[in-house]
Design goal:
about 325 residues; alpha/beta; Rossmann fold; 2 domains; 7-stranded parallel sheet; 4-stranded parallel sheet; 11 helices; 11 strands
Length: about 325
């Protein structure tokens, strides 16, 4: 068998999954130090200045990819889907761990990595110091944007995906409690609900990542920023519901789990495993938002204590 001359690593998924993938690439680079690594992804900005990568290609912008990468030498192709690994599906191992196995490397146990520039950090810090109170970065809503910037579109969209976002009313009550001591910076997409008593931050994902460093506190859900905060070694309070901190979280965070049924953190609906109803719609949880109703006192206490301790109920 001919030896590989370089690696092509394809990543399907969102920005948070790409941050997790940076840990896989770090382990790949340690396992195959002589093979340049080329990335194909929908989120190239996550990979900016990554020291383990030769070149990054964006989906839909791969005009020179075949000539420059596939047409030279022999590529080792890594395109497996870690969400379909047996040990991930059955809740046994972290996403990064099984992904490294699929790639032919061993996980070093560390989160991903994001390399921020001095300018990005300076802009984030300048924005934070201009606030009247200590800044707390808040990301209560997760997932891709709904079809329209309306409350109805948002609620319909949430019902068709894994439960990760805090209920709107609960998020507002939490903001009102936090706003006594902090300026709450609400990181959100344009199509996601707005919350009163906050400073809205709709910015480039790298500036949002820099804000995890600049802000004094962070309260997040399972989305891009909890991966980014881990990559930047910034302990945060993370509220979990339909997904699991054992599979997707990090021990440096204060991972809060609210158990509301016999199968918490079920990961449903699972689009990779045809989790559909007879009406050809995604499975919908009969308990609705019950697992998302974290007691506010537990979140506020976690913010106050700032002690990372893994998952807790």
């Amino acid at each position: 068998m001919k030896e590989s001359t370089h690696i092509v690593f394809t990543i399907n998924g969102g920005a948070g999954k790409n941050v997790a993938a940076t840990a896989v690439v770090r382990c790949l680079a340690a396992t195959y130090p002589d093979l340049p690594i080329h990335i194909v992804t929908g989120w190239p900005d996550v990979w900016l200045s990554n020291p383990h990568v030769r070149q990054v290609y964006r989906f839909g912008r791969t005009e020179q990819f075949y000539e420059q990468v596939m047409g030279r030498g022999r590529a080792k192709i890594i395109a497996g889907e870690p969400y379909l690994h047996d040990d991930y599906i059955h809740g046994d191992r972290h996403l990064i761990d099984v992904w490294c196995e699929l790639a032919g490397a061993a996980w070093d146990g560390q989160p991903g990595e994001i390399v921020l520039s001095a300018d990005e950090l300076a802009m984030a810090r300048e924005f934070v110091v201009s606030q009247p109170k200590p800044a707390l970065l808040f990301q209560p809503f997760a997932g891709p944007p709904p079809e329209a910037a309306t409350r109805l579109a948002y609620l319909k969209h949430q019902g068709r995906q894994q439960r990760r976002s805090l209920p709107i009313e609960q998020a507002q009550r939490l903001v009102d409690a936090l706003a006594t001591d902090y300026t709450v910076l609400h990181a959100r997409l344009n199509e996601q609900p707005n919350l009163t008593n906050t400073v809205v931050v709709v910015d480039h994902l790298r500036i949002l990542a820099a804000l995890t460093v600049a802000c004094e506190k962070r309260v997040l859900v399972d989305s891009f920023l909890q991966h980014a905060a881990a990559a930047l070694a910034m302990p945060s309070v993370v509220c979990w519901s339909g997904t699991s901190p054992k599979l997707l979280g990090y021990d440096l965070h204060r991972n809060l789990v609210h158990r509301a049924c016999a199968t918490p953190m079920c990961g449903r609906p699972n689009s990779h495993l045809f989790d559909m109803t007879a009406m050809d719609l995604p499975w919908t949880c009969p308990f609705a938002d019950a697992c998302l109703q974290h007691p506010l006192d537990s979140i506020l206490e976690a913010v106050k204590e700032e002690v990372p301790c893994g998952a807790e109920s």
